[in-house]
Design goal:
alpha+beta, Jelly Rolls, seven-stranded antiparallel sheet, four-stranded antiparallel sheet, globular, binds 2-oxoglutaric acid, binds fe (ii) ion, vitamin c
Length: 209
């Protein structure tokens, strides 16, 4: 495997996530990875579709709740993003090896919040299935300034919250089932990559209930 980060870095991130339920990692993407993923994002902007809420037959579009457009990534079709797939493989390996999770899959999409877009407070779990275990968000914005909005607000266990600016190459990871969060209205187009590490493939989830 092509290693992206040192084990020492990983262990400190994983420790923080176990302790606080979330961790913020700056410069998670090196310059080359950032440029590759951002270029891919920009060249596919036409292919994004309006995001809904809920899974499977429960999926509905509610612009008052969620205003982003998404593009679901596919490892075979989007093989040119191998730098990203390597990084995801490494992340899955670390969580399985050091957090005793049995992650068996993942799902990732690119997200574009146009000016004014937001996402109300939610957990990253669906009623219809609950296999999302770790959420990962990576920001693809260049020159994000204070006042541009679009912060991710994360609610801590004690009810207090923290505002995270969606700056270039920053990654936020959190426990999908227990961390309420929302995206504040963005005052300019906001680009990100969001994914979930899954406890078992969704198809299997349907059988297992
Ligand atoms: O873009 C973000 O900061 C978070 C997005 C999010 O919460 C989601 O897509 O579920
Ligand atoms: Fe979310």
């Amino acid at each position: 495997m092509n290693k992206c980060h040192t084990l020492t870095d990983w262990l400190s991130w994983v420790d923080e996530l176990s302790d606080k339920d979330f961790v913020i990692v700056d410069n998670f993407l090196d310059q080359q990875r950032f440029d590759t993923i951002r270029s891919f994002f920009l060249s596919h902007l036409e292919d994004f579709t309006r995001a809904g809420i809920g899974a499977l037959s429960e999926n509905i579009i509610r612009e008052d709740i969620r205003g982003d457009y998404t593009y679901w990534l596919d490892r075979n079709r989007d093989a040119s993003l191998h730098a990203l797939w390597d990084l995801i493989d490494e992340t899955m390996y670390i969580y399985n090896r050091y957090c005793f999770l049995s992650l068996a899959g993942h799902e990732f999409h690119l997200a574009h919040y146009p000016k004014g877009g937001h996402y109300d407070t939610h957990l990253d779990q669906f009623n219809a299935r609950n296999n999302r275990t770790i959420s990962m968000v990576i920001y693809l914005n260049k020159d994000w300034q204070k006042g541009d909005g679009g912060e991710l607000e994360i609610f801590r266990k004690d009810g207090s919250s923290i505002l995270v600016e969606p700056i270039e190459a920053r990654c936020v990871m959190f426990k999908s089932a227990v961390v309420p969060h929302r995206v504040m209205p963005s005052h300019k187009p906001r680009y990100s990559l969001t994914g979930w590490l899954l406890q078992q493939p969704s198809a299997l989830g349907k059988f297992l209930g």
